């Protein structure tokens, strides 16, 4: 009788861990993958929205940074990490 109680407890714990995985970890991994795919499609000339709420145009790219030009002022070019980009509008 005691042996069934131990296995029941183990099964209960595994069910709880499974629920946490499918409700927490897995959606987070999907979102991270979606964000990475978006950043991989980034190209010069695209309009981007940054995490701070600024819109700008990408003028140069490296592996992990971008240079974004803000407004019509050609002197306002700021290098930033790609991870600071939350939305991309492709250049037409």
- SSE order, one letter for each helix or strand: HEEEEE
Structural class: alpha+beta
Alpha-carbon Rg, integer: 22 Å
Quaternary:
single chain
How much of the sequence lies in strands comes to 25-35%
**How many domains?**
1
User: What is the CATH level 1 assignment?
Assistant: Mainly Beta
The name of the CATH topology is SH3 type barrels
CATH-scheme architecture? Roll
- Supply the number of helical segments: 1
Low-confidence region ranges:
none
Quick check: average pLDDT? 88
Number of strand elements: 5
**How much helicity do the residues have?**
40-55%
Give the CA-based shape: rod-shaped
Main location: membrane
Subcellular location: Cell membrane
Keywords: Cell membrane, Membrane, Protein transport, Translocation, Transmembrane, Transmembrane helix, Transport
Family: Belongs to the YajC family.
Describe this structure in words.
This is Preprotein translocase subunit. This protein is an alpha+beta fold. The protein has one domain: SH3 type barrels, CATH 2.30.30. The protein is built from one helix and five strands. Strand 2 and strand 3 form a beta hairpin. The mean pLDDT is 88.
């Amino acid at each position: 009788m005691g042996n069934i109680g131990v296995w029941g407890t183990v099964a209960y714990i595994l069910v709880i861990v499974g629920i946490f995985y499918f409700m927490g970890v897995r959606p987070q991994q999907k979102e991270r993958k979606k964000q990475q795919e978006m950043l991989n499609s980034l190209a010069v000339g695209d309009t981007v929205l940054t995490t701070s709420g600024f819109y700008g145009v990408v003028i140069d790219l490296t592996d992990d940074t971008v240079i974004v030009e803000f407004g019509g002022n050609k002197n306002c070019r700021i290098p930033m990490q790609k991870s600071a980009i939350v939305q991309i509008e492709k250049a037409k």
